[in-house]
Amino acid sequence: MTDRNGTRFALRAPTARRREWPAHGTLAWGELITDDVDTSAAFYREAFGWGLTEPSGPLGRREWQTHGRSFSGLLPRPPAMPAETPAYWDVYFAVDDIEAAATGATEHGGTQLMLPTPIEIGTIAVFLDPAGAVFTLVQLTTEETAA
Predict the structure, then answer these.
(1) May I ask the CATH class of domain 27-145?
(2) DSSP state of 58
């Protein structure tokens, strides 16, 4: 499926209640990175009833919410992201050791786009997989910050 901006997305139904703290190697977060925040916000609100927080931080990140709980992010294109990179949903995978996971990703054919970098909730590192899909590894610092 694609949204109004042409960004591809997929839906999944959870098979069990989500854990509060994502286990190593599991999906921890999703984040739409787009040039048209307003159109994206309208599409997902109308299609799925998702609400959004106000922009925060230096990049203007917002969080998608249902029932008052954040579950994913919306980020305007960061200045460092090349203009030729299309809008996409970035997936974050939880890891227990960011350095070891980053080494494993590159040893298995991944290309590191961003070295491990501290953020508010822990440390992230960004990669391309061998097929060219972007993904992010995240080592969370506390259970309180897990999405």
Answers:
(1) alpha beta
(2) T
